[in-house]
Specification:
- The chain is mainly beta.
- The protein has one domain.
- β10 and β11 form a beta hairpin.
- It has four helices and eleven strands, in the order αβαβββααβββββββ.
- Helix content is 12%, strand content 52%.
């Protein structure tokens, strides 16, 4: 058993955003039993850890991306996923991030793990995540290029939000956006499709 899995307590806060090939809002985001727009739901989650750790390892500044390919009804399971962790992370940070995001340490990703049929080997690459004004971007050379642009609401200075949403990994308040992405890993090509973001808070004591 690894050093990380021997620990029971960990926490993390940060930015989480996603884009998939569904129209806004992705039905699977509302509930996995809903039929997604297309025969396969293709997308990614991008994660920027702003704070967190397990008492020995600090995750602040770490980044990760999970790409996925799921059936139209996500609740059927048999998802294919790959995790990419920023190559700048230390060996300890890489281990802790991987064990959090595969559900080995409990928490929200433990719930999602039951739907994954194929977990492809983790890769370590340079990940760039930027948040500027109304846009969020993630870039991994040779793998993914994605930009999210927030929807404009009635009050132009305020984002359009879903509130009081139940979601395992996102915060209850989520900001809606449209995403334009290219991801060679899963054949994802989007332009103005479902995207949203939130500032997550995960904890296992």
């Amino acid at each position: 058993m690894s050093e990380a899995t021997q620990k029971t307590g960990w926490w993390a806060k940060g930015l989480l955003f996603e884009n998939c090939n569904c129209t806004l809002v992705c039905p699977g985001h509302i509930h996995f039993s809903q039929a997604c727009t297309h025969e396969r739901c293709l997308g990614y989650w991008a994660i920027l850890f702003e704070e967190g750790g397990d008492g020995g390892i600090d995750l602040a500044g770490c980044k990760a991306v999970i790409t996925y390919d799921s059936p139209q009804h996500m609740i059927e399971g048999d998802w294919t996923q790959r995790m990419i962790i920023d190559e700048a992370a230390s060996a300890g940070q890489r281990q802790l991030i991987e064990e959090i995001l595969t559900g080995k340490l409990g928490g929200p990703w433990k719930v999602l793990e039951q739907f994954v049929g194929t977990q492809l080997p983790t890769e370590y690459r340079a990940i760039q995540i930027d948040e500027t004004g109304r846009e969020k971007r993630v870039h991994i050379a040779g793998l993914i290029e994605s930009t999210l642009e927030e929807l404009k609401g009635h009050a132009r200075s305020e984002p359009v939000r879903l509130t009081n949403m139940f979601n395992q990994i996102h915060a209850p308040a989520q900001e809606l956006a449209l995403g334009t992405s290219s991801c060679t890993e899963i054949g994802l090509q989007t332009k103005g499709t479902h995207a949203l973001s939130s500032h997550f808070s995960w904890r296992v004591d």
